[in-house]
Amino acid sequence: MTVTLADVAARAQVSPATVSRVLNGNYPVAASTRERVLRAVDDLDYVLNGPASALAAATSDLVGILVNDIADPFFGIMASAIQSEVSGPGGRAGGERLAVVCNTGGSPERELTYLTLLQRQRAAAVVLTGGAVENPPHLAAVSAKLRRLAEAGTRVVLCGRPPAPDTSAIALTFDNRGGGQELTEHLIGLGHRRLGYIAGPEERTTTRHRLEGHRAALAVHGIDEDPRWTVYGRYDRRSGYEATLELLRRDPSLTAVVAANDSVAIGACAALRESGRRIPDDVSVAGFDDLPFSVDAWPSLTTVRLPLSEAGARAGRIAMGREEPPPGGIATVRGELMVRGSSGVPRK
């Protein structure tokens, strides 16, 4: 029996118009309502069996690239590299796929909506970038969606994202723990013992893994971490600025600030300068990712370089079937410590 839009609406206890709004993503819908609609879509297999299949077959050259924030260079660099492998550097190349970048804004609900839309369009491939939200119901929903995509013939690749157990998704995962530990080991090696840490959003896997690496380095060297030394925030400059002022308020004797990423580190540098601290004479600063502006900052930023463009290009080739997946479907992409002018020996 053919499943219709009305069937989905009845199952979700909403109007057909609301179902259409959720699937088209063109109108704000309450998170709880969106969740009910997407659950009904999955329960009834509407995407696979419904009348949209004719449209899906006509657009099966689509490749979806999901990013948390397209304005963040971390995601922009990866998305650009993936898109070049999929569509060619200037857009769609003859005989190649059409890549569409889906900006979730960090919203778990929007991530699921995009996955549903790509499933409905029978996308040839889907590439998810960046860390995952550590929310068990959401992770379960994403895993179920990835399994359905794979069952429908969509190739799924995770780039810079942890593996998704019980799915056939290929994962190119960044060694955030190892990079975080190496970065803090560098600062400890210079003599720092009072290190503030500006973490990203608590619910993100990237945040947890980088912080775990930092704490592992402290533990190895017998440094007791003061709870005051860690502040959580967003992955942006303003968060780094505000968090650094908070760290200085909590403990003015800090000699180093480790930031969750380079944008956060730039904000930290601004706050330190406004507070009369010299970098690195009074306080050292370190970031993560090695974004393009890091080497041009003053002083240039000590950071961990992640091969974002290279990883994105590899994910794109795997998504297109032009490169074999790594053994076991998982590859760990390691970073490289870049020691520059923002880190130095602590003041006496």
How does this structure look, described?
The protein is of the alpha/beta class and 348 residues long. It contains 13 helices and 12 strands. It has helices at 5-12, 16-24, 31-44, 46-49, 53-58, 73-87, 108-120, 136-151, 176-190, 205-220, 237-250, 262-274, 308-319; strands at residues 62-67, 98-103, 125-129, 155-159, 170-174, 195-199, 230-232, 256-259, 284-286, 303-305, 330-333, 336-338. The strands form 3 sheets. The chain has a 6-stranded parallel β-sheet with strand order 2-1-3-4-5-11, with helices on both faces. A 4-stranded parallel β-sheet has the order 7-6-8-9, sandwiched between helices. Strands 10-12 form a two-stranded antiparallel sheet. Helix 12 links the parallel strand 8 (256-259) and strand 9. Helix 1 (5-12) crosses helix 2, helix 6 (73-87) runs parallel beside helix 13 and helix 7 runs parallel beside helix 8.
Please outline the major beta sheet: 6 strands, parallel
How far apart the termini lie comes to 78 Å
Number of helices: 13
Gross geometry: elongated
